[in-house]
Structures are given as C-alpha cells and as structure tokens.
C-alpha cells in the first residue's frame, strides 16, 4: 500500500494548526468553532494555502463529523430533562421560534433566496449552539445561577425541534414535494417517539451491547451501529444526522456515559474536520460582499435571542440582571447552523458564505457579550447598596 | 418566593432542612439549601462526576458565587469526612425509637485479641446477641461488614444491641 506523503503532511499540518488555534480559543474562553471555520477558509479557493491531497479525506471526514456531533447530542438527552423542559418552557420555545426564525426567513426573502434557502436560513438563525453555550456557562461558573435552568431548557427544546426540522429540510432540499416533506417529518417524529419509548423499556439491552469492558470494543460497536443507522436514515431521506441523533437517544444512563467517554476523542477530531470542510466550501471573495448582510442579520438576531432569554428567565422568576445574562448567553450560533447549510450545500450559491460569516460573527461576539453582561453585575450591585 | 417555587423540581425534607433539587438539562443536578447562618448554598452535581459548590449573594439572589470545584474522588473524600462521625449518631437516633435497643462504640485496641483477625472469628453476635453494624476506620466507614472483614487496631466498631450485649462486645474485644 503506497502512503501518500503529501496527504499525511497536509492533514497533519491542518491538525497542528487546529490544535494551536484551539488552545488560543480556550485561553480566551472562546469557542474554537469560528477558528476552525477560518482555517477552512484560509485553505479553500483563493485562500492562503491549498491542500489538494487532504481535501478528499476532509470531505469524507466531515460526513462522519456531522453524524458524531448528533450522536453526542442524543447521548446528552434524557426523557426526564426533556419533559421537565417541555412542561415549564413551552411558551419560551414558541417565543424562541417566532423571534429567531422570522428574521432569517425575512432576510432570505429580501436577499432573493429560493424556498429551500429561506427555510435553511430561518433554521440557521433560530438554533443556538447548545454545545458552545453549555461549555460557556460552565467556564464562566454560571451553573449555579438561577437563570441557567431556563437557558438549558431553551437549548434542549431547540435541539428537539431540530430533529423534526432536519428531515423536513433534507426532503425539501432533495426536491421533494411539501406533502412528502410532511410525511418524512412525521416519520422522523414517530421514530423519535419510538426511540424514546424504546430507550425507556429496552434501553438496558442496547446498553449491554455497547458497554463492553474494553474501550476498543465499545468504540467500534457504537461507531458501527451509529453509522449503519445513519446510512439507513439517509437512504429514506430522514437525514443521517437524525439517524445518529436517534441512536444517541436510545442509549441512556451508564451506556450513554460509556459511549460519551469512548466517542469523545473521535467526535472532537471529526467535528473539527467538519468545520474545516465548511470553511473549505467558501472563498473569501464570495464572503466579502455578503459580510454586511451577515452583520445586519447577526445584530438583529442577537437582539431577538436576548429577548428570548429575557422571557425564558423571567418565567423562572429571575430578576433583571439574570435575564440579561440568560439572553446574552443564548446569542451564540454554531455547529447546528453549519450543519443546516451543510445539508443544502451549493444548491443556493450565497447560503454557505452568508451563514459561515454569520456564525463567525456570532460565535466570537456571543461569548464576549455574555461575559461582559456577567461582569457588569458586580458594579451594579455596589450601586444598589 | 417565586424563584424557588418555579425552579424547584423536587424538595426533600431531610430532618429539619429543606433541600431543593433543580434539574440542569444536559449538565446535571443542582441541590440548594440554607444553613443555620442563613447562607444559601448550592451544590452542583455534574454529569462528568465532578462537583461545584456555590454560594448565593444577597445582592443578586440569582447570581451564584463560585466557592470551589471538586473532582469525583475529592467529593468522595469530603463526603466521608463529613459523614463518618455522624454514622454512630444516626444509629443512636434509630435506637431511641426501639425501647431496650442501644448503640455503642467499641474501639479495637492494640492489645485486643482480634486486632489483625477476621471479624467473624470473634463470634460476637453468637456470644453477646449484639450486632456490629459498621466499622469506622479513620475517614472510611465500612457499613454492615462481612465476617471476612479484617480488623485493625484503632478501628471503631459501631454496635447495636441491648446494654448488656454491648458491654459483652466490649469485654470480648478487651480480651
């Protein structure tokens, strides 16, 4: 077997650059996602360096990255958390959808995107990055705060909405009629319910299959099952991502902990590859003219997220400063917005560069804003006394 | 207080103290209680097995002040430090409810015939009718020890039985 020196070198260098950028991001309590996107941008058409050899692997790796991101998300869920969030925050979820999807849809219409583009953009502005935000709340030591359960509940409900939204989008993107889309959403939602019911009744059986004392065995089993289910889901237009999400949901308790532990390094690697691949799809020259539109959209939807967080936190009886903290925490958009445009690909020329710029802005500005909003409170407290 | 009613997923009354349990979806659980001094204390149990302890300020009741973080192993140790001295007291509470039943502590001294031997070799229950329900060894508590448990000098045995039974165990271990 001939080993391609160029490939190993290129891919190795990409990983070295990513690790350096990631370390830098951690130091500033920022998310590495925008930096990974920038790396992809720098490596793409019209970028600083070209990586012809690694390109193909990055593309394949990206597909695995999406699957693993969704698997990890599914593993995070429990029925109890979902029902508790639903019981208390269903109005917050409604406010969230209306306030945050509408600006995206409107922007898509103004920019003259087609129907698929409008639907995708609405989704991209709606969904906050649960991964980045959960990490951020922990880094900023806010897990003890009263507004935190409200923030997390909004995120849980958003992630669930995605399970219905992604199949809808992938059917519409594949050129399916509206009735087909509705049908597949129904299929996805019933599969979701079945996975929930299944995990409740037979979760321990599935759990026994994947919890093997050897980490290697566990990893191979989880990865194998997930990829097979993802492929099956994709073949019936439910989207591989949703299939992986379902696998994650089915695993609960100890099995979920085990799966999380063995899959984490793989997920980190392939998710990074996925973000780079999105950056690769875009060139600076495409992005520049869309930057003003992205900035306007980012400003607008940052404000609507603050309103959402304000409302959700006020439902939990949180006072003003906590509501500001909750609102600003929700601003960050990230992996999901990118997954959404990844589904559409190049069908709508301007969508990938627009959403990439949008995520770049909000993934950097969001954490800074919420940090600032939190730092504001000690000063205010002194004034209050 | 509106905040608490809306946030609390469960309240358990532990003795005289109310502990609120708040679910943090995707992150873990938070327990909140107020101590005798009126400090509002929060303990966050993370999915990762780590713990975080926070305090709530009077200035902004919604904001927590981080106190410290503990790894799973550190939390275990802390729990044992806090828990060990209370074990005997708890048994004392229990025995108060059953007339004639007493709880006592018997130290295994250096010159005890059973120091370094198995618990079962003492035949304590057969001879005295009293049960050894726990062994307190430094910071560690061995609950309901089996007959194969080896005793060390310095161990404290928690004994439940009649007053005579406990006295019998004391004599037995004095040799």
From TrEMBL, chain A:
Sorted keywords for this record are: Membrane, Transmembrane, Transmembrane helix, Transport
Q: Which domain of life is it from?
A: Bacteria
UniProt entry tagged with the keyword Transcription regulation = no
Membrane topology of the entry: Multi-pass membrane protein
Q: Which residues form the Cation/H+ exchanger transmembrane domain?
A: 17-370
Localization, UniProt: Membrane
Q: What is its main location?
A: membrane
* Transmembrane portions of the chain: 6-26, 57-78, 90-111, 117-138, 150-171, 177-197, 268-284, 324-345, 351-373
Q: Which family does it belong to?
A: Belongs to the monovalent cation:proton antiporter 2 (CPA2) transporter (TC 2.A.37) family.
What protein does this entry describe? Cation:proton antiporter
Q: What is the species of this protein?
A: Actinocorallia aurantiaca
């Amino acid at each position: 077997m001939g080993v391609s020196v160029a490939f190993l070198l290129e891919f190795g260098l990409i990983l070295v650059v990513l690790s350096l950028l990631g370390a830098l991001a951690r130091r500033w309590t920022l998310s590495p996602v925008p930096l990974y996107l920038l790396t992809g941008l720098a490596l793409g058409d019209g970028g600083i360096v070209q990586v012809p050899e690694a390109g193909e692997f990055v593309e394949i790796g990206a597909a695995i990255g999406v699957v693993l991101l969704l698997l990890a998300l599914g593993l995070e869920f429990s029925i109890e958390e979902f029902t508790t969030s639903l019981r208390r925050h269903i109005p917050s979820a409604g406010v969230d959808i209306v306030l945050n999807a509408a600006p995206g849809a409107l922007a898509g219409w103004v920019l003259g995107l087609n129907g698929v583009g409008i639907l995708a953009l609405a989704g991209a502005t709606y969904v906050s990055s649960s991964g980045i935000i959960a990490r951020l709340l922990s880094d900023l030591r806010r897990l003890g705060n009263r507004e935190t359960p409200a923030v997390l509940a909004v995120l849980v409900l958003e992630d669930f909405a995605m399970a219905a939204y992604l199949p809808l989008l992938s059917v519409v993107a594949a050129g399916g009629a509206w009735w087909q889309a509705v049908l597949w959403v129904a299929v996805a939602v019933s599969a979701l319910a079945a996975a929930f019911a299944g995990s409740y009744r037979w979760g321990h059986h599935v759990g026994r299959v994947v919890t093997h004392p050897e980490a290697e065995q566990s990893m191979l089993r989880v990865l194998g099952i997930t990829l097979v289910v993802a492929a099956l889901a994709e073949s019936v237009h439910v989207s591989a991502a949703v299939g992986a999400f379902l696998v994650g949901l089915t695993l609960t308790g100890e099995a979920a902990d085990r799966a999380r532990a063995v899959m984490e390094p793989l997920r980190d690697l392939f998710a990074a590859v996925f973000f780079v691949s999105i950056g690769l799809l875009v060139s600076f020259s495409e992005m520049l003219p869309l930057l003003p539109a992205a900035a306007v959209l980012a400003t607008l939807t940052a404000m609507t997220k603050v309103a959402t967080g304000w409302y959700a936190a006020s439902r939990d009886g949180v006072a003003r400063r906590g509501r500001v903290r909750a609102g600003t925490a929700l601003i960050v958009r990230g992996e999901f917005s990118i997954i959404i445009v990844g589904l559409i690909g190049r069908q709508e020329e301007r969508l990938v560069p627009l959403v990439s710029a949008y995520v770049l802005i909000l993934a950097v500005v969001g954490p800074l804003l919420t940090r600032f909003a939190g730092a504001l409170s000690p000063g205010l407290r002194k004034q209050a006394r | 207080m509106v905040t608490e009613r809306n946030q609390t997923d469960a309240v358990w009354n532990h003795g005289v103290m109310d502990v609120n349990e708040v679910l943090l979806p995707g992150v873990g659980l938070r327990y909140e209680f107020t101590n005798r001094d009126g400090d509002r204390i929060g303990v966050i149990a993370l999915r990762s097995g780590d713990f975080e302890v926070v305090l709530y300020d009077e200035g902004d009741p919604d904001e927590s002040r981080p106190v410290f973080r503990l790894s799973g192993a550190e939390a275990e140790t802390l729990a044992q430090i806090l828990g060990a001295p209370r074990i005997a007291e708890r048994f004392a509470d229990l025995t108060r409810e059953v007339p004639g039943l007493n709880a006592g502590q018997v130290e295994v001294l250096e010159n005890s015939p059973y120091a370094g031997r198995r618990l079962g070799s003492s035949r304590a229950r057969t001879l005295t009718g009293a049960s050894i329900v726990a062994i307190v060894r430094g910071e560690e508590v061995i609950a309901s020890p089996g007959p194969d448990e080896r005793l060390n000098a310095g161990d404290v045995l928690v004994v439940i039985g009649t007053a005579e039974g406990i006295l019998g165990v004391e004599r037995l271990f004095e040799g």
